[in-house]
Amino acid sequence: MRRLPGRAAGLRPHAGRCRLCFAGRSAGAATEIRPPSGAGAAVRPAAARRRAGRGSIALPALLCSVPLGPRRLAGRGYNQALEIARPLARGLGIALAPQLLHRVRETAAQSSVAPERRQQNIAGAFAVPDAALVAGRHIGVVDDVMTSGRTLNEVAATLKRHGAARVSNFVFARTPPH
């Protein structure tokens, strides 16, 4: 598994570290999601748990995906982050909670927003409907693409306001910094 930078310059450290989980290949309308070459152990529970015991990876108690707003979900027909989270949760032997986090406000795609306006774009966009599921737990958040890290920071801040002990991010792809 290739380690990505954990913190971008100037961002609050809510999001913690990010890991590249999968490599994908698109073929027409379907996308194949698979572990990157040489990283097959990253999605095998026994291997991941052995590494966790050696301190290199602390597995979350629960995984959720970054939710889409209703309009974007209707337009796309599925949540890419959730589709990435499904095999990751299975592979790591971690429960997936698709409804743990809700997007309560539609936002523009972060990639389409000027870097200095991204925090304003995403602020207040998420809510946790059942804080009891989050309180005191290590939550893993799966996202498809990390642009500036502002979305992941906002999600992590929301989860921590609802009592999450720790938040780890698992990211499919990263755009180059601006």
Describe this entry's structure for a reader.
The chain has helices at residues 45-53, 70-76, 80-92, 118-122, 150-161; strands at 18-20, 23-27, 30-34, 62-65, 95-96, 102-103, 126-127, 138-146, 166-174. The radius of gyration is 15 Å and the shape is globular. It is α/β, with parallel strands linked by helices and 178 residues long. It has one domain: Rossmann fold, CATH 3.40.50. A five-stranded parallel beta sheet has the order 1-9-8-4-5. Strands 2-3 form a two-stranded antiparallel ribbon. It has a two-stranded antiparallel ribbon with strand order 6-7. A hairpin with a 2-residue loop joins β2 and β3.
Q: For the largest beta sheet, what order do the strands appear in spatially?
A: 1-9-8-4-5
* N-to-C CA distance: 24 Å
CATH C-level class is: Alpha Beta
What is the global morphology?
globular
Strand proportion, as a percent range, falls in: 15-25%
Gyration radius from CA atoms, angstroms:
15 Å
CATH architecture type: 3-Layer(aba) Sandwich
Stretches where pLDDT is under 50 for at least 5 consecutive residues are 1-44
Largest sheet: 5 strands, parallel
Instruction: Kindly name the structural category.
Output: alpha/beta
Number of strands: 9
Average pLDDT over all residues: 76
- How many alpha or pi helices? 5
- For this structure, the CATH topology is Rossmann fold
Could you give the order of the helices and strands?
EEEHEHHEEHEEHE
Number of domains: 1
